């Protein structure tokens, strides 16, 4: 595998527990076919890791690229279709917060979306607090309190 300036997992991350810098990567040899479409890997169809979820895909299912500062990927890197949609939602949430779009944030929370989903360095609540948007902070906190993971993280 050719290194591309920070695109390979840190040493000891493939097939190990989740590390500080991201998710566990599935070992190449563990996958015989693409996780999304089932295309068999071979001489012409190579394996590619999604940098956000760590699963193995074919090139057709990892065509999207996103910068993932949260995982220390400052330049756009390969992500699968599902993670690309999550990145888009996370970016839309941050943009709504930055523009003080209370209705967009309220709609996002009403859909029971993950209020702390982010791909950037700072989580949405931190972004809202630093932007000085108290109404959005209250909305995000109300969304967090309705999520089971929030209670678990407090214990």
Protein traits:
single chain; 5 helices; Herpes Virus-1; disordered N terminus; 155 residues; alpha+beta; elongated; disordered C terminus; two-stranded antiparallel ribbon; 2 domains
* Largest sheet: number of strands, sense, barrel closure: 2 strands, antiparallel
Estimated share of beta-strand residues: 5-15%
Q: Which consecutive residue ranges, at least 5 long each, have pLDDT under 50?
A: 1-6, 10-20, 149-155
What count of domains describes the coordinates?
A: 2
SS summary, helix count: 5
Secondary structure class reads: alpha+beta
- Main-sheet strand order equals 1-2
Radius of gyration: 18 Å
Helix-strand pattern:
EEEEHHHHH
Mean pLDDT: 81
Strands, total number: 4
């Amino acid at each position: 595998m050719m290194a591309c300036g920070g695109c390979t997992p840190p040493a000891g991350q493939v097939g190990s527990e989740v590390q500080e810098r991201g998710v566990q990567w599935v070992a190449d040899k563990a996958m015989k076919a693409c996780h999304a479409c089932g295309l068999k890997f071979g001489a012409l169809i190579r394996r590619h890791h999604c940098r956000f979820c760590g699963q193995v895909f074919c090139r057709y299912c990892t065509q999207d690229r996103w910068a993932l500062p949260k995982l220390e990927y400052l330049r756009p890197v390969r992500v699968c279709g599902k993670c690309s949609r999550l990145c888009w939602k996370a970016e839309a949430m941050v943009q709504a917060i930055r523009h003080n779009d209370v209705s967009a944030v309220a709609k996002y929370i009403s859909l029971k979306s993950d209020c702390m989903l982010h791909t950037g360095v700072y989580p949405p609540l931190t972004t809202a607090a630093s932007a000085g948007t108290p109404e959005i902070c209250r909305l995000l906190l109300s969304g967090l309190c309705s999520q089971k993971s929030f209670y678990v993280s407090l214990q």
